[in-house]
Amino acid sequence: MTTITKCLAAVITLAALIAVGVSSYLAWVSWQAAGVAGCTADGVIDCDTVLTSRWSHLFSIPVAAVGALAYLALVVVVWPAANNPRSTAMSLLLALAMAAVAAALWFVGLQLFQLQSFCLYCLAVHACGLTIAGCAVAMYSRFDPYGHVGRQQAVVGTSIGQIPSLVASRRDDEPVIGPAVACAFAGVGIVVLIGGQMFGPDSSTTAISEIKLKPVVNQSVQSKSVDNAPDFMENQSLSAADEEAPVGPQRLMGFAGLPSPIDTHAMPMLGDPDAEHVIVEMIDYTCKHCRQMHPRLQKARERYGDDLGIVICHVPLSVECNDHFPPGKKGRPTACEYARMAINVWQHAPEHFVEFHEFLMEGRSPPPLGEAKQRAMSLAGAKVLLDDRMKSGTINRLRKQCDAWSEFDSGLPILLFGDTAVTGGGKTDEELFANLEQRLGIEPKPSASE
């Protein structure tokens, strides 16, 4: 083994170990629903957007975990390949290196064109992959396992018809699996990766299941007082003039799992707070299951029209504003920011809340935090971000809503009805419609059923 070969093998080993470490960390982040250390969520650099997208998984398995195993395999084969360039280890080294290049092109392309956000950790892994590929090709080019012409045919694979003749003429010291065959297997793996992500099942799809709770009798009354309402409905005053303003219409309704009724006029709403049928949706803007259910709820609102109203109860899945997040998990720090902005927009410009809510829920991942801030200011002014008193009150409100969520012992999303509560977004639109119609007795509008 020459000095140059040793140096190339050492570089491959170092890059592969770095990739294993970073990929393992990203896989842990994905499994723990944790935030990514040191990766800002403002602008195009947004690790959370990338790691919560559907492209971060393959058949419900984090692709980072698959990558960690692939780079670990590189660590295993690199030195045997360097010691014996005619071994199967060299063929596997080339195959894994080419797969790393193809994966880098695929995932960087997704970040650039599909997500329009970049994960610095992911880019670091891909940089390691490209480095490994360059060194592997350089290492292989220093040897001539098939002869001067045969080597070029084996690496490039220019003629499939010539591969059998190469195998037939294999010398005893040549690998059982040649580079061309190994690279072909790697190509199949990349096709499975891309096809699985594009056409495979969406890991965010969950069936609707009922949460076992003691029923709460639904109450609907008109009142001038909300003394019996939960604390999280308290709307902070924005000015002295607001404090003297007359109390508007109120409607108290009881929902399963909540200790007391809530005022539908004192909560962010999708639809009419006086609608005949009202449900509560507990959500987090960074929750993939919540985002999966959202378009179905949109269709439900179109199907039932003004008969259906949806109270939005924000429950950020982050320890920064949720004291009931599972021990050992930190959640996503941006979850609190999105929820605070949504509540602030509702308090300052309630007429624009639905627009902002739909903006945050559009697509498979929330928009970059910087873009969300710009939209919030364009709808309700800079005060939605600069009002310190409102920020404090909003955080307090979120903590109390998280307190209410903790009583359900269930993940998000949660839909609350008068006497039942369910979790999960459903696997089809029809499943959600059937649940709403069964539990509410609601019927589609004639125009929606035609």
Task: Note the main attributes of this structure.
single chain; 450 residues; alpha+beta; de novo design (two linked rop proteins); Glutaredoxin; 2 domains; six-stranded mixed sheet; three-stranded antiparallel sheet; 53% helix; 9% strand; elongated
Description:
The strands form four sheets. The protein has a six-stranded mixed sheet with strand order 5-13-12-10-11-9. Strands 6-7-8 form a three-stranded antiparallel sheet, with no helix packed on it. It is elongated. Mean pLDDT is 82; it is low at 146-172, 215-228 and 235-246. 53% of the residues lie in helices and 9% in strands. The chain is α+β, with helices and mostly antiparallel strands and 450 residues long. It has helices at residues 3-32, 47-51, 63-83, 88-115, 120-141, 148-156, 163-168, 179-199, 240-244, 288-304, 334-348, 353-361, 369-380, 383-386, 388-406, 429-440, 446-449, and strands spanning 41-42, 45-46, 57-58, 61-62, 209-211, 221-222, 251-253, 262-263, 269-270, 277-283, 308-314, 414-416, 421-423. It has 17 helices and 13 strands. The chain folds into two domains: 3-199, VKOR domain (de novo design (two linked rop proteins), Up-down Bundle), CATH 1.20.1440; 209-449, Glutaredoxin, CATH 3.40.30.
